């Protein structure tokens, strides 16, 4: 009889443990340029509601300062963080390499790459252990392709850009490597201040997605003879990084499936924002220059992959995506990626 009571007590205790795990709240740091008013934050609000079905209880914390969001995640204030993939590469090189310099040449290519990365067959690649901490990529969303903005539209070749100041995101060593290789002056910046530097003439050139055009007032920096060159130099995605032990079993898999379903909506938003940039500012480069710059960026990616910055499997995925969409591209018959 006593033995039976002990068994029942043990089962009750185990049941309490499971219940407390389900009821525990998960704090998630969310970076969005516009804070709670931003489209990204709105998507994560919907994700948090959906997560209740996966036995999670999400509390979102909004950040307009990406570095602060990362610091709070690392200090343990948050159990997960949503931020740019370039910054999240520290926690997962495979997913963080989607945004390799020049690796995505259109939104069509980007959608193929993200869909592949989130596929259940890549579950193992989306798990990583860094400094004895476990991390998992639980979602990826598109911010948009980043285009080059200049104060002077005559600054339309790499040769003319030599010696000019370029605001790069200081946590992405890949950007600095490329800027240095082009003999431009690399000015370390954050998402919170790179456009301010451009608009106040501290730098001559920036690369930005359309998502930032209106809220950060990029038009102020190009209104007097400037331009946006319609040549994407880098893709910008956002990664949701979680500490899997803080979430219910199989949470990451269920979360990724939800994010895959959001991709059409995410890319529709990107297209709408790109179309909203006034046509008068958009300039196309000659085709021969585009190919020349693609070759330069390709050489840079290969170097950075050899240095361990980019994941080689993701580089092959991106090339396959590019050559599926752009079958006649010069690179499709080349090896190296």
From TrEMBL:
Extent of the signal sequence: 1-24
Keyword presence, Signal: yes
Keywords carried by this UniProt record: Signal
Pfam families, per the entry: AdeT1_2
Highest taxon above the source species: Bacteria
Protein name stated in the entry: RND transporter
Species annotation: Acinetobacter tjernbergiae DSM 14971 = CIP 107465
């Amino acid at each position: 009889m006593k033995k039976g009571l002990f068994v029942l007590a043990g089962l009750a205790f185990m049941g309490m443990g499971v219940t407390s795990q389900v009821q525990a709240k998960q704090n998630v740091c969310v970076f969005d340029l516009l804070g709670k008013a931003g489209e990204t934050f709105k998507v994560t609000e919907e994700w948090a509601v959906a997560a209740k079905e996966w036995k999670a209880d999400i509390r979102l914390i909004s950040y307009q300062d990406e570095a602060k969001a990362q610091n709070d995640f690392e200090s343990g204030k948050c159990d997960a963080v949503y931020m740019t993939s370039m910054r999240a590469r520290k926690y997962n090189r495979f997913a963080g390499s989607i945004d390799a310099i020049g690796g995505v040449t259109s939104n069509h290519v980007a959608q193929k790459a993200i869909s592949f990365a989130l596929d259940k067959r890549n579950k193992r690649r989306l798990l990583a252990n860094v400094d004895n901490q476990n991390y998992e990529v639980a979602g990826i969303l598109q911010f948009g392709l980043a285009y080059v903005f200049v104060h002077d539209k005559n600054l339309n070749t790499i040769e003319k850009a030599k010696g000019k100041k370029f605001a790069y995101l200081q946590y992405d060593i890949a950007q600095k490597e490329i800027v240095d290789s082009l003999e431009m002056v690399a000015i370390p910046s954050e998402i919170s201040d790179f456009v301010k530097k451009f608009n106040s003439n501290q730098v001559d050139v920036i690369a930005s997605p359309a998502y930032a055009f209106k809220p950060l007032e990029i038009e102020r920096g190009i209104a007097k003879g400037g331009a946006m060159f319609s040549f994407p130099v880098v893709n910008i995605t956002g990664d949701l990084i979680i500490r899997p032990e803080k979430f219910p079993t199989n949470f990451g898999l269920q979360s990724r499936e939800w994010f895959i379903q959001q991709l059409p909506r995410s890319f529709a938003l990107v297209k709408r924002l790109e179309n909203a940039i006034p046509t008068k500012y958009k300039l196309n480069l000659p085709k021969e220059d585009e190919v020349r710059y693609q070759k330069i960026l390709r050489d840079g990616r290969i170097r950075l992959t050899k240095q361990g910055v980019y994941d080689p499997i993701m580089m092959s995925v991106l090339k396959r995506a590019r050559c599926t969409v752009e079958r006649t591209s010069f690179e499709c018959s080349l090896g190296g990626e």
